[in-house]
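Notes, Module 5: Reading structure tokens.

Key idea: the token line is not a picture. It is a compressed description, and you learn to read it the same way you learned to read a sequence, by spotting repeated patterns. We will look at two proteins. The first is printed below with its tokens.
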Amino acid sequence: MQNSITPNGGTPSDILLNVFSGDGPVYGHRKKHPQHVYEITIRIDDAPGPFSSFGASVSMQGKNPACGVPHGFPAGTIMAPDGVVPFSLTRISDTEYRGTFATDPLVDEVFWEGRPACEWEFVAVGFGFSATGAEGETGFSGSLDAKELASGRPVRRYYRKSIYPKHPEIGDLKGYADLGHQSPEQFSPENRNHLFSITATIREVRS
């Protein structure tokens, strides 16, 4: 049974879920008043050029698989839906960006008759930057999971300058994303002096 609340398609505020179902698209719904809200500040140091294309999102997972529906392989397997909730980043300087997100952005709800309500849990907050957003450009991506969020410590990742704006060996491959590394020592010696970094700092603003 398709999601009964939005049977004919979602509104712009709804979130298209990833779910194994033959019933058509299934949509999650944003909370009007989430309780756990955070501010993320992202700083880019020593970049080889500007980033005019950027975005961020929160990944959510249903924590009770029984709220899903069986799918074909393996036979009878039930997996809870998951979804990605985008949010806006604002450029506050040439090197810093800021946004606000919730770790409880979705309503717990029943999607299929006879199944329990899906209870959502936070997986990670992620972000990505590219030079202009043109096809074939490298996306420089990072994320913080629940443990990193709880620690309150900034998370820094390093990336090669040589793959900005495009990776010279990959060409125009659509959707290429580089996840970087946590330490310069994880790069080959010839690349360690040619890196830039992206640092994400998060603080809770309401709970």
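Here is the second protein, with the sequence above and the tokens below, as before.
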Amino acid sequence: MASVTIYDVAARAQVSIKTVSRVMNNEPNVRPAMRERVLDAAGALGYAPNLSARSLAGSRSFVIAVFVDAPLTIDHWRSERGSDYLSRIQLGATLECRGAGYHLLVELIDHDGPEVRREVAALLGALKPDGVILTPPSCDNAVVLELLDKAGTPYVRLGPEKPEGLGARVHMDDVAAAREMTEHLADLGHRRIGFITGDKRLGASQARREGYVAAMQARGLPVSPDWIREGDFNFESGHEGGKALLALADRPTAIFASSDEMAVGALTAVAEAGLTAPADISVAGFDDSPVARLSRPQLTTIRQPLVEMSTLATRMLIKGVARNGGAQPRDELLPFTLIQRASTAAPRG
């Protein structure tokens, strides 16, 4: 059986081939009624535009790529935070791509490896993407940014540490979010608030620590070095950090972890110490990942708008508003939300 062609769609919709092409490429200046007629015809015939043919017909590849850190993905994939972070990024980008007739490709990049330059150059040469979404830490990697600029490939950086003049970015205010969570715990009456940091390679980790310290100082609360423990955004580091904080003679009455996965680790340490949350100690997280609602008690946390961030980044690339060079790079700041659940309460006494 012969495959359905653009000519068949045009004949069924009683429009020109050029009109069908404009609708399939999601180009502007097509009347809504005409667009609907073409899409109905394409759907009835089971027509799907050939990606290779579309690429050959013009300068676009109709591909948006997402660069993800390979070691981070492998090490954390089985953790709730690792899988949830990437799945939410993919969800927003995929839905936006689908609506515009684009395809999304996720590419793993070993940013700490010796072959990062060759690896990225090969990917750009093979895929020729119309745009790239850079997740941490690729959004701050000098080699990656240099190669993208040299290739003239538009990119949007999600949550970068370095903001100035390095291309379009979509982000949330991690400093303000961590500050608001720390203030929430202080408002409950906590004076000794412990903190577990995230992966030190990522700018968000430093920003969240900065927000915690700023809130403590603004409230006139002491920031003991013993109350800050190094973490890695995974359960194990949260568990170890929680145990270390609970072992202190002047242990905190609340623990704020830089991710929900680490907060669950801290909750486990609380239970192992024969204590309960929040009666004996409050625990808060960051991300609002599924584990925040599945834990017992459910976690008070910060919701970061990952789906919205990747959706906006993809839209910027498709619409061509993320091209670098010339005007000041576009900067989009999206809001966070503090979600109060059962894991935090006023301290005893």
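Summary for the second protein:
- The chain has a mean pLDDT of 88.
- Residues 186 and 219 are 8 Å apart (CA to CA).
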